[in-house]
Amino acid sequence: MGTRWSLTIDCAHPAQLAEFWALALGYVRKPPPKGFGSWEEWFADYDVPEEEWDDGAYLSDPDGEGPALSFIKVPESKARKNRLHLDVQAGGGREVPWEVRWPRVLEALGRLTAAGATVIQEYEALGRPDHLMMADPEGNEFCLL
Hints:
Blueprint: E1 6-11, H1 14-25, E2 28-29, H2 39-45, E3 56-60, E4 68-73, E5 86-88, H3 98-114, E6 118-125, E7 128-135, E8 141-144
Parallel strand pairs: 1-4, 5-8
Antiparallel strand pairs: 2-3, 3-4, 6-7, 7-8
């Protein structure tokens, strides 16, 4: 059995970046911990100062299978290339035939660029498009395949 894990992303605007990644991954806002009707109730119970309540945003996989994502406000901006990135397999992964996979990738590309993502580079394999390196609205790199 593997160890449960989550991913934390430092950012300037947690709620906005969480909204983008919810769209990209099909995630939902993470419900508050058991026993609390809202995150605000949890924050108050744990004496988190009210001015810090918007310093984070939290997403979860609605099916409960993928890792949770946290978006935490930090003062510094992104300075260089990510050493870790997500592969968003909107096309279903490379085991899906290219003729099926690539139209799915293009559909996701349209949604994500409309939500603020940018294309950094397109990669080819076997003489045809294979995947895209992209950046989310705050410049964090990810691949779309």
